[in-house]
């Protein structure tokens, strides 16, 4: 099934440990804005197809049969309450790409582009490619998705070879491949860049699924593929850019199953491409995960927390409160990372609705890869609460189904978490701090180094759900990828080998 021989130069555990922050030992690093990462790549395109933003905001009057009303709410998109039978055509592709990775605001004074999905440092290292096999209004081929300038650029007249993706008949009529450019994140985060690259990819992959749902298109996330074959098919230099996930769009179709690779002109990007700064550890960490392990024969059982829960019985998450639902379109276009948190009390109907939005039917029917689904079991989620009506301050872990909370520590730990996360004081004011932890050693023993990709991208995907739920309920939300790693593990009472991968703060803002 396209397995590769494992000979990893760097394991996931070693990479994460090597790139851990230690207080007072973070090397000074100045940012060279003359080498700021370019927001998009440029090819010698065979053809350009404009993405029609109008199709995102209103129905296409010329094609009633494919006209999809974008009145989907955040609740529906997060809760999998929609029917997915719309065809995959140019209008649908436009909607999906613009809603998931489009520019929602251009700040010309600061030279910043705000997009529909968050990114660490606002760097947006992810790139998107569309492989079109059977898509109305789009000629068969491979396209680079330029969501900044708003077009599809055809770079190869043949789509990607389905054999790269192992399963047949697969991919569907179209699939989106998300890649990451190391330097675009390493410009600021250096050797830690692979961490942020994976979290960003998870956010974007979940955003693509949400946008597809809103457009009525079926979407499924795949973590497993032939890495070397996909790198060749996309004509990538894997010291600079690597594929991380793909999302199939629409129903499975039967077409010519064989696609030969045709050479095309490589991309020319921004000023950093002339002499890109490379970090061997980033490429090595990626290559260590090229081997795809067999899924575990039994249900994995790990426990990242060393502290046993309090004797109090698990707290069930209350039913959601009565709130007017916000349209998904409004939530996406207005989404921002807001962290000016206030100390005001968070009413129970609000936080109960928030938790129900995020954890109800989480990832339902989205993950066809057995190994990726197994990795979900190694990711544990917890929350530090404060000023939440009806819930005493403390550290709570979520059950696997997300419907009960077990208290593991009594008392307010929010300000302690803020100090652990590089003294970012705003974290200490948030009513809810969500934590994503995993026993990397246990995970790697079962799934190999590739499992690191799975758990990090899964954390990013939940993070995207947190952002959208916060936007719907008028709360602030901001992700945190920087922490003093060993201090964080000690604060949370994690077992040896377990680490804090990601944190997301949410709550009322000023």
Tell me what the structure shows:
The chain has 510 residues and is α+β, with helices and mostly antiparallel strands. 28% of the residues lie in helices and 19% in strands. The chain has 15 helices and 16 strands. The strands form three sheets. Strands 1-6-5-4-7-9-8 form a seven-stranded antiparallel β-sheet, with helices on both faces. Strands 10-13-12-11-14-16-15 form a seven-stranded antiparallel β-sheet, with helices on both faces. The protein has a two-stranded antiparallel ribbon with strand order 2-3. Strand 2 (103-107) and strand 3 form a beta hairpin. The longest helix has 22 residues, at 193-214. The protein is globular, with a radius of gyration of 22 Å. It starts with 11 loop residues before the first helix and ends with a strand.
Biggest sheet record: 7 strands, antiparallel
Strand order, largest beta sheet: 1-6-5-4-7-9-8
Low-confidence stretches: 1-8, 57-68
Please tell me the overall pLDDT.
87
Ends: how far apart?
A: 53 Å
Derived from helix and strand composition plus strand pairing, the structural class reads: alpha+beta
Number of strands: 16
Q: Which percent band covers the strand fraction?
A: 15-25%
